[in-house]
Amino acid sequence: MKRRAIVILIVIAVIAAFVTPVGATEPVKQQLLVDQARITFESFMIDQNMAWFREHLPQAKGLLIIPESLQGAWFIGGSGGRGVLVVKDEKTGDWSQPAFYTVGSLSFGIQFGGEKSEIIMIVFTQKGLDKLYSSSFKFGGDASIAVGPVGGGAGVDVMTDFVSFVRSKGAFAGVSLQGAIVKVNYDWDEAYYGQKVSPSGIIKQKLVSNPGSAALRNAIRNALK
């Protein structure tokens, strides 16, 4: 009986090792998105069509990176995706921990033609950053956005709040995001940092950090050297 009891205890311990949520609170999905954002950024940096993007990156106050935007992902008949915002510290030049967002629209999915797309938006103004610190806002109504040009010759008014760059299947797509809705993903922020925190708390107050963001932040930092 004693041996049987020991065996039962061992079995229970083994089961507990698999059932106990050791990794259940680990931000697996959130970390994957951060890693995908790094890959997207690095692929934009070597894309020959992204010369304007590279030339104006030093002027960026922040980057909103959406590794995947899919038709019907968030809205029936529309498009959307999850992304991360990183912001440059004006004093140190360093880049912030990421804050999580969802972006969706009932209209721009039609323009994408149902393709999976990668999006990076450069934030050029303080107004643009302030809108991102709010719970939600709409491009075109609450903040201005322009389509990023192909190559380096075309001009864009960098006083616009956001300039967007979209690639579909690896090819540049001059798609307008007018009307798209941006929302803070508080649940993903909480999952990634282990506590409730706002974008302002993450970026401005620097209340939290996650070492998993180092690769993304280093990629942006190294691109500006």
What labels describe this entry?
9 strands, 35% helix, alpha+beta, 9-stranded mixed beta sheet, globular
Order of helices and strands: HHHEEEHEHEEEEEHHH
Helix content: 25-40%
**Proportion in β-strands:** 15-25%
| Cα Rg | 20 Å
- Total DSSP E strands: 9
Whole-number average pLDDT? 81
Look at the helices and sheets and give the structural class. alpha+beta
DSSP summary: helix tally: 8
Total domain modules: 1
End-to-end Cα distance, whole Å, is 69 Å
Categorize the overall geometry: globular
Largest beta-sheet details: 9 strands, mixed
- Low-pLDDT parts are 6-24, 72-77, 106-113
Describe what this molecule looks like in 3D.
This protein is of the alpha+beta class. It has one domain. 35% of the residues lie in helices and 24% in strands. The chain is built from 8 helices and 9 strands. Strands 1, 2, 3, 4, 5, 6, 7, 8 and 9 form a 9-stranded mixed sheet that branches. A hairpin with a 7-residue loop joins strand 1 (62-71) and strand 2 (79-87). It starts with a helix and ends with a helix.
